[in-house]
Amino acid sequence: MTDTPQRNHNLDTDSTGGSTLTKRGGGDPATRGRTTIADGVVEKIAGMAARDVSGVHAMGSGMSRTFGAVRDRVPGGGKSVSRGVKAEVGESQTALDLEIVVDYGVSIRDVARDVRENVVAAVERMTGLEVIEVNIAVSDVKLPDEEDDEDQSEPRVQ
User: Fold this and answer.
1) What is the SS3 string spanning the chain?
2) Which of 32, 34, 93, 158 has a Cα-to-Cα distance from 13 of 20 to 30 A?
3) 112 forms bridges with which residues in the sheet?
4) What is the pLDDT of residues 8-45, one digit of tens each?
5) Is the confidence at residue 153, as pLDDT, over 90?
6) What is the pTM of this model?
7) Each residue's pLDDT tens digit, 97-151
8) How far apart are alpha carbons 153 and 104 in whole angstroms?
9) Residue 141 — left, alpha, or beta (φ > 0 → left; ψ -120 to 50 → alpha)?
10) Which residues on neighbouring strands pair with residue 100, listed in sequence order?
11) How far apart are CA 65 and CA 121, in angstroms?
12) Quick check: 110 and 55 in contact, CB under 8 A?
């Protein structure tokens, strides 16, 4: 006789020596199965959380913002909330790299701290992943008299 594995059942013997079939609980239903979270999901969460911080003017480098502004004007292109964010997601941890543009006059150190705190809180709350690091690169500072690439409502060429 070959032993075949039984799922969610256990074969026990009763007081008369006969066999009875009893169900195993199997534990909490929430632990049955596996959940995977894509890098893009974490990038979107982190991007939204970083943009919520006062003093963050934009996300991404000048070139990515320029391409993003063009893409935003294309019907169906939509704004990319993950612009300027790169995530590496493992089974239980994630690491993030953010590229931000800050407003002139703000304390970059304070903005970076606030971005880290907000991003870590949002990602850990929404995904359950442990955020092991949030690296922030400040690629530019938005001066008060500078035109904003993203706010141009009319194309330069007609």
Assistant:
1) CCCCCCCCEEEEECCCCCEEEEECCCCCHHHCCCCCCCHHHHHHHHHHHHHCCCCEEEECCHHHHHHHHHHHHCCCCCCCCCCCEEEEECCCEEEEEEEEEEECCCCHHHHHHHHHHHHHHHHHHHHCCEEEEEEEEEEEEECCCCCCHHHCCCCCCC
2) 32
3) none
4) 444 455 556 555 555 566 678 878 888 899 999 999 99
5) no
6) 0.69
7) 999 999 999 999 999 999 999 999 999 999 999 999 999 999 999 999 887 655 5
8) 23
9) beta
10) 59, 138
11) 26
12) yes
User: Whole-angstrom Cα distance, residue 67 to residue 132?
Assistant: 30
Query: Residue 99: which of 88, 121, 110, 83 has the closest Cα?
Result: 83
Residues 152 and 69: their CA atoms lie apart, in Å, by 8
